[in-house]
Amino acid sequence: MHSAWSLAFPETNASLRTDASFIGKDDEDHHLGETPLTDLNIGMVSAFPLDYMHLVCLGVMRRLLKIWTKGLLRTRLGPRVVKEISNRLEALRPSVPLEFARKPRPLREVDRWKATEFRQFLLYSGPLVLLGKLPDEEYKNFLLFSVSLHILLHPILSTSYCDYAQELLVLFVNYYGQLYGRDMIT
């Protein structure tokens, strides 16, 4: 699905790409032309790992914060609420352990946040500072994302509860589309 600014992927049950399906160009919409990388005789899907930092932290988490702070009127939080969330983030600064690379910064600085700040927001501070500030359905949707990533990033939980995390992520994507528009699932 194409929007004016991006390509959206709203499906949660699409077949996974494989090296063979890439070489066979099974998904015609995905292939815009030839790539010289196929001459390297490497797996065009399996040789390129998914990058958590860019997909999750600088991808989905950043997009959510931008939707809430700078998005369309129907999804944007008011300036007072954004300020209250920022105040909560700044109030956490003295309590943040040294193990965290950065102290929380206000939402007005989100354009300058680093991946580690988005990670901290997703896994630790976000569930606290958003409580009672986001509309309930949006908060619950955020928690689906946060809990699923807690599971997937944990060395023990990820093996025992991987299927559950996947269920949570499918719910997250489906509700995300309902809340923010299917064209926002990029």
Word description of this protein:
- There is one protein chain.
- This protein is mainly alpha-helical and 186 residues long.
- It has two domains: 1-48, no CATH class; 52-184, no CATH class.
- It is 51% helix and 0% strand.
- The protein is built from seven helices and no strands.
- Helix 2 (52-70) crosses helix 4 (115-129) and helix 5 (136-153) packs antiparallel against helix 7 (162-180).
- The radius of gyration is 19 Å and the shape is globular.
- The N and C termini lie close together (9 Å).
Task: Itemize the secondary structure elements and their pairings.
Elements: H1 19-23, H2 52-70, H3 79-92, H4 115-129, H5 136-153, H6 157-160, H7 162-180
Helix pairs in contact: 2-4, 5-7
List SSEs in N-to-C order: HHHHHHH
Report the span from N to C terminus.
9 Å
Radius of gyration: 19 Å
Query: In one word, what is the shape?
Result: globular
How many structural units, i.e. domains? 2
Strand content: under 5%
Tell me the total number of β-strands.
0
Give the rounded overall mean pLDDT.
91
Number of helices: 7
Q: What would you call the structural class?
A: mainly alpha
Q: Fraction of residues in helices?
A: 40-55%
* Poorly predicted segments: 1-8
Largest sheet: none
Keywords for this entry:
186 residues; mainly alpha; 2 domains; 7 helices; globular
Task: Give the structure's gist in a few sentences.
With 186 residues, the chain is an all-alpha fold. The protein is built from seven helices and no strands.
